[in-house]
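Researcher: Last one for today. Full complex below.
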Amino acid sequence: MRDVAVVAFAQTTHTGHDAGLTEPELIGPLINDIRARSGLRTFGFTCSGSCDYLAGAPFSFVSALDAIGAWPPISESHVEMDAAWALYEAWVRLQHGDIDSALVYGFGKSSQGDLREIMTLQLDPYYLAPLGLDQVSFAALQAAALAADRTTLDEIVRRSRAAGRANPHALDLPEPMAGEFEVEPLMPYDIAPITDGAAAVVLAAGDLAGELCERPAWISGIAHRIEPHYLGMRDLARSVSTADAGRVAGSGKGRLDVAELHTQFSHEEPILRAALDLGADTIVNPSGGPLAANPVMATGLIRIGEAAARILDGSAGRTLGHATSGPCLQHNLVTVMEAR
Amino acid sequence: MRSEHVLEFPGGYTRTTGPVIGRFLTELRDARLVGVRTAQGRVLVPPLEYDPATGEPVTGEWVPVGPAGTVESWAWVGTPRPGHPLATPFAWALIRLDGADTALVHAVDAGSAKAMRPGLRVRPRWRAERAGHITDIESFVPEVTGMVAPIRLTYQIQPGEALSRFLAKVRDGILLGGRCDSCHAVYVPFRSACPQCGTPITEEVELPDTGTITTFAINNLPDPRAPEVPFVSAYILLDGADVPMIALVGGVPAHEVRQGMRVRAVWVPEAERTASMANIKWFAPTGEPDVEL
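Model: Here's the assembly. Have a good evening.
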């Protein structure tokens, strides 16, 4: 395998409302930011992640290219997934050996529509989507299958929101307050907030990484695994695919200082902690995680970026970024990074 | 500036089902539930074309399942959304149909979250008009585990001699007791024999309508005989009596009622009186100092 590292990470100041920017306007300044941070003006490969259903328009990602500058022609690709999978594609592309740099970005404005119902459209169209099973409802089924302890969940939300208030890119959310269930057993605050935002990462291979960056976050392992889609055909209380991906990525081969987990619901944290066998010495979601800012389609990439940033700034030696896709943690990507 | 933008496939998006899902939906239209057997012998419900555990094509063997099933886990929707299958609160549930090795996701119309539990037995409630669609099952409903048996009999009763005598006096605004010739205890309401020594009671004693609360209960369930909720029913030891009489206490917040409190009967206006304890609206505090019991 060719050595590939995260050499730069940038994200927008995420908002809990539509700030009135189009997607190209949202990512334009971000791309300038990551160019400045990485020192690169052009890239061997560009890959993005977004979802047309968030904007309600087909091929909406094409217009986002206006912010990149695609002339003279660039080598570009897109995934209709969280941009963490765009990063995976870029990592694979860098393995070809003919290019040394890649720009990855993801963006989403979930404020524009009804995310709970947009997420129904990702479900199988025969058995699940026609029931009107919305995102919070299927997440609540998973929380019920886990029989998660309420005190534990409250503490996860409290910790995440406090960390988010200390993160200038995340939302300022209050301490969770008692109230009615959203869908029992989930409280409204167990659900990641509606967020608009974007993020970008630059990957560099081999010697270029060291030239661009004093302390690259070398990707020592990256893998993704998927489970059956239908909720009744898997054990919702466990994430076998996360455990498998973590094993292949070598997450357990050394101490992890930080793990950034793509937890869109508080109950997902105990499931992921168990799957990755995270110990008490691993700090989980020091950025606040998705419970403090959830710009859908960038959230997973931000987990990798935040985990990489701890290495870039010298505060951690070995970190993990997790991203998920599909209902109830169906599909999971684990990236392990380390300083050298 | 803001404008509404709608994304819609007019008339709906047409999808082919293939033979496996198509068979399941066809059976649903006929109000039957079937699963498909995998090469490893498991029964998938709803059926898939490939075994999710191995990726192998499923066999052509169809297995009748259900119609009853068991709830494995559930989530309660207190406020249904427009796209939900029911307009009233319901549960989403993973339901293991009898004979299946996997769970079906569907709605359970259980009335209340308290009715839901893992292990709950449920059955489909079919739509009258079915089209070969997962919503041909309107929802699942709990199996019958209980029923209501109405009972109502009507009687004609009389109070008996002693109580008739007491109620006749109540009509006049008097509480009548009786003294036992043998043990001298005073009972109210008036009765024909002493419950302690069995001696016939002949001596009538007119008692005052004041007394002391010996014990009481705060009732939070409505009762047609009580004027409001919560209400207090109390044992009241009338002055000069040796046994307390049960009556309502009013004219005072329920939480202020206490043992030893002095009370007096509040009578309905004379014109409204009948031979009934309804003559006394309730007993209200007199304001006198409490009595040590």
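The interface with chain B takes residues 53, 56-57, 116-117, 120, 125-128, 130-134, 137-138, 140-141, 143-145, 180-181, 183-186, 227-228, 230-234, 236 of chain A (CB under 8 Å). The CA atoms of residues 61 and 84 of chain A lie 16 Å apart.
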